[in-house]
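INFO batch 0412 | record 1 of 1 | parsing
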Amino acid sequence: MNRRDAIKGLGLSLGYVVATPAIVSMLQGCKTEVDLWKPVFLSVNQGYVLRNLVDLILPTTDTSPGALDVNVPEFIDLYVSKTATVEGKEDYKNKIDALLDELGVLDKNPTILKPSDFENMLSKYLRSSSEQQSGFTDKEKTVFDALKGIRGRAVWAYRTSEEIGENVLAYDPVPGVQKGCISIEETKGKAWSL
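INFO prediction complete | emitting tokens
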């Protein structure tokens, strides 16, 4: 590794550390009624598809709230609008449009879709094997990349939400000393919230 790459890496890591509190506060500021949400960056149709997908990826269970309960779609919309470059925003919208096209509603109202339409698309792409993925057309690769990106952002937004961090994950607002090896029973099998 040369000196330039090391300095660049250090600068990026410092940028992430500085940006993290702002991003977390942005997530916590996403408080809207789900039915009243109007996307800031995405179109209404794109927002509708995003909402349905993240609801299937992270549904509400008996023991934890779902993605819609902690406003994950709102956060993703706001996050992309505030942090992506012009090219990144265009690419993100193109990928969401590829999902609309795959669902057959690019130029139609997506409210005609059933939950099974979203489930079938998620199953086709996110449960595909490496061999199946290697046979994807360019259009299918775009849909696959879009779904992978949504899943990744949704899980990240979900885990960093205040509700999940404090009430679902193991949480200690005033951490003590660092213990390298602790029993899983101490946290009841839960991951630690940061």
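INFO post-check: The chain is about 60% helix and 0% strand.
INFO record closed
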